[in-house]
Amino acid sequence: MAGTLSPEIWKNWDKTGKSEFMKLFIQLCKDNTKSPMFDKNGKIQNITHNLNLLVINGVHGTIKKEWVISALQELAALHSDNAAIICDALNVVDAETSVFENSDDPKERNSLGYIIRECEKFLSDKLLKERLEIDTLQEVGVLKTRNFYTKFIKIKTKLYYKQRKFNLFREESEGFSKLVTELNQDFKKNMMYKSLLDIVQSLIGCFNLDPNRVLDVIFESFENKPMDTRLFIPLINSYMNDHKIIAEVSGSKYLFLRNSSDTLAPKSLFVLTAHLLQHGLIKLNDIYSWLTPDDKVMQKDWDSDMKNAREYIQSLQVISLNGPKEDTIEEKDNTTDQYNNNQKLGLCEALLEIGDWDNAQLIINRLPEHFAMDYQPVALALCKLLHYIIEPVYRSNYKLGNKLKGRVVPPHKNPLAPKPVHTFLDLRKVAIPMLTTLGPSLRYDPLLLYKVIRLAKAAMNSYGIEATSTQPPTGDTLYYDILSLLDTTILPSLSYLECNCCVAETVWNIVKLYPYHVRYCLYGRWKNETYALYPDLLRKRADSEKLLKTTMKRVSKENLKHTGRSIGKLTHSSPGYLFDYILVQVQVYDNLIYPVVDSLKYLTSLSYDVLGYCLIETLSNAEKKRVKHDSTSISNWLQSLSSFSGAIFKKYNIELTGLLQYVANQLKAQKSLDLLILKEIVQKMAGVESAEDLTIDQLNAMAGGELLKSEAGYFSQVRNTKKSSIRLKDAMADQNLAVTLCLLMAQQKYCAVYRETQQSHLKLVGNLSDQCQDTLVQFGTFLGSTLSVDEYTNKLPSIQSMLLDYHIPNEVAFFLARPMLNHSINIKYDQLRKSDSNYKKLSTQAKHQKYFEAVSEIMKPIYKSVIPLHPPKVWEDISAQFLTTFWSLTMFDLCVPDETYQQVIGKIKQQSLQIVDTNTSKGKKDLERYITLMEKVQDEKKKQHEHVDKVLYRLNQEKDTWFLSRSVKAAKNETITRFLQLCLFPRCTFTPIDAVYCAKFVYTIHTLKTPNFSTLLCYDRLFCDVTYSITSCTENEAIRYGRFLCAMLETVMRWQKSKENFEKECANYPGFVTKYRVSNQYSDNLDHVGYENYRHVCHKWHFKLAKAMMICLDSKDFVQIRNALIILIKIIPHFPVLLKLSQIIEKRIEKVRDEEKNQRQDLYTLAISYHGQLKQRISSGHMLKESEFHQVVEKEKVQKSHDAVKHESNVSSKHNGDVRDQSDSAKEAVRDAKEKPENKRSRQSSEDSKLLPKVQSSELNNSKDKLTEKEKQPKESRLDKDLRKEEKRDELEREKDRDRRRERKEDKLINKEDRVYRDERYIEMLSPKDELRYSSERDRYYDDRGAHYLRDVRDEREIGFGNNGSNLRRSQEPPEPDRELKRRKMEGSTSKSSKHEERKMQQQMEYFIEKSSEKKERTSKAKDKREKISDEEKELRKERKIGRKRDRSEEAAWDRKRREEEKVAKMMSHQNGEMLEATPHAREKHHHPREKSPYLRERERSHDRIELRDKQYPFNRNKYYSGLRSTENKRR
């Protein structure tokens, strides 16, 4: 019915309900041919439900029973099927009422009985008896006797419980014999199963055969004739369609075989069962329970096998001391029997043979993982099925040729087997799941393995993937399916094969199409996970490791071929874990590196790639410490692996991208230790060395062209690096790693110091910083030499981007950008030159002008990009053009190494002369090669000369704008400060060639007569204060800084040795001007430093260098001592040259050597090395006496010179700015050189200005007496004269000692005032209003010294030439913003204080010199005679003593006055609301905060509290003062 009945129908049944009820049924009963139970669409209607409601309402009394009977009678007449439906409704109501019957009130059952009795009148008696229950029929009276019930019981018993008697074999076999004959005959092709079924049924009926036994006979016949599936399967299906009975009959066969332990299940039985399963005659669950063994037993056996394999590995790793034991009995036989007795595996094999993959897969999945495929027959059956499936697609995509057709696989005989595939995508449906299930058992069929790999290669090529760099294809492809096959099937199968290098190379053909990170993921799973899944693989791995250990013990240079072949055979199939062991041996024994590298030449391409992965995996091991236990250097294992990486990647073609990306990732993570790997790779593969110990000839060669560099600039001849350098360049091109590594290394240098090594040892910090620097230079050199200029320009960012966007330091940015700048300038020069119609006839001057125009146009944008990097005040002293010019040039641009060119040309000529007489073809080719090379070198020399001329013309045009002219005298100091800060210091420690370049550049701007540049002041600032520079250097930076100082000293000493050179290169040069005028003009020679004054200044510089070295050597600090020794070694050709200083340094070196002998061996080694070189120079006569170095000035001349200086200063202060004061540093340099006290002095006659020969100091004091004695006694013997001289000398020495003791007592009171003054000054320094760390009035290294500087360092200016080095400390006045103003105010009192300072310096120097010679004089004294001291000498001593006291009192008064002025100045500055000190410029965002400097980490400091002395020498101030007092007490 379409709808349900409303409850109102039953209430209004007599009025409208009946009519509505009947109306619904009449519509369904119109078509008498169709049942009213279903509608047109075949869906069940609600007619049965409505009839149930009708009867139930009648039974419950809702409507009258008569109305129900009447409605049922009418409905029965509407359709023939309604009677059956009414009976069903009555049966349902009968069941409901019988269940819920109330025995106390049987009203409903009575009503139902009445309705059934009345329905008997219009329903057939047969229908009621069929549909209703027997008890109900008896209850209502339809069945009036019990005969019907008895008859029903008998029929039921006969049908279901009575056993028939069949004719069994033991009784009569004729029927079964005929049945066997009929079933085992040779059937014709037109034989049908129906005719065979009729024969079987007739035999059963004729001979009354047991149907189950007949079914068993049919199974037996089917077993013997499995090829007649077309007859037996329909026969069985028609004969017995109950799958449970068929399964029971089949299972009884397996049960019988299981009970008979000696009998194995025949294969034919498995095939029979497989056919039944494939055709659906039985279900797998029905037959699976009959099969043995149980799944739990198999899981237990698999786990036991895995456990035994692991124990086997452990047993091989145990070292037995009791001799070899008997080999354990292999369990392979037991395993084979176990598999043969396994009925489930036999059924699985049969299913695969007939092509029933679905059921076979169900069985495989029920067994333990990899258990079924470990049974070879099962794996081979699956392989055979795969051959059939992939045959069409294989033949269509891989052809051997027209003549070689290959072995064609015939189609499968079973039509129900999986269909063969014809396209690559069809492989995904069946073939790939089969291969995944097969797993490493693919090894049983190498032919199929080859086919699968070739199909994978063909599929990848069809997607356009032919190289590693190709992007993965889009769309529906097998790209990732093949990857899964490699992981689960192909690579594990390769592990089982024995020394099959052909398969390994074929596998590599497909693996190499994937990017390196995908391949490395495969190798990781293959090495670390695959072997743990299979017991046989574990045993094979253990055996291979044992063989490899035996082989590695025999590796040496003598048997590389034999051991290499053994290693190659082992690694063909399973390279991963074997390489792990090899790398462990390399890490432990670094002498194995090169023998191992040479022995790996027999590896396959796949093995080489796996070796690259194993290297990265070993390097990335987080459990290993990358530094040694003392945390001062890189661990040995990392150094060994880095060296091995460079050697292996150079010798063999292994992809480098993965290792380079690993280094880049480490740099991103702020880890710079792995830069050692990149350094070794670039050095080995490209031949670019990062050598620091270049000789002078090599440095000169590095200033030439590429040919000269290759011939004379490297330690070893670069050989066999062309191919490897190209491979390295190609690897860099992948993912743009070249730019990435450059930028990361440039940023990592500061990160290594301030972030990465916060808790590391200072030595390690320096090593890492050097490593970053060296690797960056090495890498940049490699890129510049390997890439073409266009490639270099396109890959690297512009100089503006490096400076502003990446915040790379100037030295690195310009180092990387110089090739690009030179290329752009040359291109622009060619354009400008060729734009002129007469460019071929241009003069040299015109070409130089064109070059200058090209430079100006190219460099202008760079000038602008440099300006934002520094505060505006910087550009008040130097111009951006000068800064850019300095950083953009190299040694190649400034000079031509003509001598080196001539040496190389001479060497080539000599080599050509040796083979000129040979007539062989090889000799002629070599001769031609030498001649061509010589011509190229000569042409390169000529081109460099032209280039240098153009560069010098450019510099000559630019020099007037480099240093700006300012009216203030201090501008000269600021100019030199900026030059040192921004140019010399950063670059002189960058590379060795840059160190030489800096010295050459200073010489160049001097020779160009650059305005506003003081060469003398530049040298003075460099040599006078090098302590902090030495302390702040790393080891390699100290080497470069030493080279720089050596080159500077070479120029200085060349001028010092020859007056001719000085007059030629220094006289009348603006760099040696000592007075600067407003108009910047100089008119007379008095404004220049003379030759003798210059020699005095050189003497001072040597003195300052010696003092700085003594400070460092006495510091007890590792870094200072090491750097000082390194620099001393580098500058030994030019320092020391004074015999006195050499002896002092020698004693100090001996002290360091003795102290460090059993402590710090590296310092001990350096000290031994330098000591030997110094001794050799001393013994060879290279040292000079004081008088040979410069003219020694006597005391009286010193006094006159001071008076002249005083007069000159007073006059100059009155000229109202017409003539500016002499530069402080230059004036101090000249004055200090004149003030050097010596023990042996000459006296100048008042009438003659020439110097007389030196005489002893005693003779000076008694010159008149001696002359009188010589006149009176002209014939006195020589011996008597000598004795008198010695007596007088001894008496003077004793008198001097007594005077000194008295003077020391008098000095104690003054020294107390000095100490109080220093303490007050220290308290003032701790105030927050003192100087900042970086003042705008000076740089971080140097301060401007005025005349008052000498007065502030009066007690600390002495050098302790003995063993005690505490006197080497010095005090510096903190710089103040009004220094010039104060200096001018104090100029009037300068003469007095300088007089006192002069005398004090003289006394101190006399003391130290005399102290060193006291012992020799005491032992050499043969007589002890005294003579009375003349009255004249006593008067001189009294005058000197009174003068000293007067000077000290004046000095103390001046100090008090100065302190009062400073307090007033500070108060004035606060009252005006602004500080007089200039605040330091804010650092740029890319600069690292200073607080993270390793020199500042250990001590508490504030830039408002620290004096310059603490900035230079990191020691405690209180300890220093206490040490100073103790030293003074000891001395006195």
Strand content: under 5%
Q: Round the Cα radius of gyration to an integer and report it.
A: 55 Å
Please count the helical segments. Answer: 69
Assembly state (oligomeric): single chain
The side-by-side strand order for the widest beta sheet comes to: 1-2
Helix-residue proportion: 55-70%
| Biggest beta sheet attributes | 2 strands, antiparallel
CA-CA gap between termini: 133 Å
Secondary-structure class = mainly alpha
Q: Give the beta-strand count.
A: 2
From the spread of the alpha carbons, the general shape counts as elongated
Mean pLDDT: 76
Low-confidence stretches: 325-333, 1078-1085, 1195-1279, 1316-1398, 1415-1430, 1468-1532
Domain THO complex subunitTHOC2 C-terminal: 875-1174
Keywords: Nucleus
Organism: Pyrocoelia pectoralis
InterPro entries: Tho2, THO_THOC2_C, THO_THOC2_N, THOC2_N
Task: Explain what you see.
- The C terminus is likely disordered.
- Helix content is 65%, strand content 0%.
- Among the domains are: 153 residues, no CATH class; 230 residues, no CATH class.
- Strands 1-2 form a two-stranded antiparallel ribbon.
- The protein is elongated, with a radius of gyration of 55 Å.
- The chain has 1532 residues and is mostly helical.
- GO terms for molecular function: mRNA binding.
- InterPro entries: Tho2, THO_THOC2_C, THO_THOC2_N, THOC2_N.
- Its main location: nucleus.
